[in-house]
Hints:
Layout (H helix, E strand, L loop, with lengths): L1 E2 L6 E2 L3 H6 L3 E5 L2 E6 L4 H10 L1 E5 L4 E6 L3 H5 L16 E6 L5 E11 L6 E7 L4 H9 L6 E3 L5 E7 L3 H5 L14 E6 L6 E6 L8 E7 H12 L4 E3 L2 H10 L41 H9 L6 E8 L10 E3 L5 E11 L4 E9 L8 E6 L2 E7 L13
Parallel strand pairs: 2-4, 5-15
Antiparallel strand pairs: 1-2, 3-4, 5-11, 6-9, 6-10, 7-8, 8-9, 11-14, 12-13, 13-14, 16-19, 16-21, 17-18, 17-20, 18-19, 20-21
Amino acid sequence: MSHSADSELILTPLHALHLELGARMVPFAGYAMPVQYPKGILAEHLHTRQSAGLFDISHMGQVALRGDDAAAALETLVPMDIQGLPEGKQRYALFTNEQGGVLDDLMVIPRQRADGAGQELFLIVNAACKVQDVALLQTLSDRCEVVLPLPEQALLALQGPQAVQTFARLVPEAADLVFMTGRWMDVPAEGGAIRIFATRSGYTGEDGLEISVAAADALRLARLLLSLPEVEPIGLGARDTLRLEAGLCLYGHDIDTSTTPVEAGLTWAIQKVRRNGGARAGGFPGAEVILAQIDQPNLAPRRRIGLIGLDRTPVREGAELLAADGRAAGRVSSGSFAPSAGGPVAMAYVAAEFAVPAGTLYAQVRGRAVPMQLQPMPFVPHRYWRG
Length: 387
C-alpha cells in the first residue's frame, strides 16, 4: 500500500482499479476508499441483495497471534471462548475496557500458518481502531508472537446470494464452507494460481466470502472476480446500507467505549464458559460489569433497538428520540433509507423502559417529530449458509 503525497491518505492495492471503474473516492479511516461507482448506491445495494457484489475492504487490519499460549492470552482481552475454537471455525469477538465498554469488534479464526509451520490465530480488526488494537495485542507479546501481515495483505469481500456458487466455478471447494468457517485455497488464474484464505462470512446479512490475499495478487484476483457476469464492484455507501438492514453494528456508531455488550444486544457472542459459573468465567477487562449485566439485565440502563419509519422521512445518526409524552427516550446510532426494507430504518439506544415491542417513538428531524416503530432486527432476513 502506498501513500499519496498530496493527501497523505493510504491507498489500497486496488486504488488504480477503483479509479478505472469510475469510483467516487472519499477519505475513510485514513484511506482513500470508493464510496460508490457510476451506477450509484441504490443499484449497488440491490445488486448485492440479488446477485454478487465485490467490496475492497483492504483498510481492515489483519493480525496473527502465534504460540501455544495465544488463545489463552487473547482471552485476557475478550469475553469470548477462544481456547475452545477448533481450527477453521471463525468467531465474532469484542475487545472490552475496564468499564465494560467495547473498544472494537473483530473476527478470530484458528488456522494453519501459510508456511505450514503449525497453527496461528488470524484476526481481522476495524480500520479506524487498527493502531489501538495492535497496541493492545502487543501487550500479549510476552505470551505469544504478534505478527502483522499488513500492509502485505489485501482483503476482499464477495457478498450476495450468488457469491459462493459464482466463486465455486473457480474454486469448487469453496462451496464446502459453511457460515463462519474458513480455509486456505488456490484460485486458478493467468500468471499462476493465487493463494487465498477465505472465510464464509461478511457484513451484509447475505451469504458470501471474505478473502485475504497477498497485496501483490489483489489486482489479479479482483479483475478475475469482476470478469464473472454476476459480480459488480460495490462501494462503502452500499456496504453501510446493507449492514444496517442486517442489523449489524458499526464500530464508533452502534458500539463504542460507552456501550457494554449487554446494552448492545451482543450477549449471544459471550459463550457460557466465560460467564459466571463457567469453567473460565471472567478474566477479561470489565468482566465484573458485563457479567453482572448478563445475570441482571436491569443493570444495563440502555438497549439497542431497531426502528422502522412510519413515513418516508430518513432519520440519521444523532437524531434525538422522544416518547409520545415528550420524555427523552434516546438517540439514533445509525439511520438511512433501506432499499430492500422499502423505507427508513434506524438503530438506536433507548432507556430500557422505552424498549417495548411495537412501541412508537418520535425522531426529531429539522424540528419535526417523525414517528418510528420499534421492530426486531434484522430488518431483512439473514441469508447465511449454515449447511
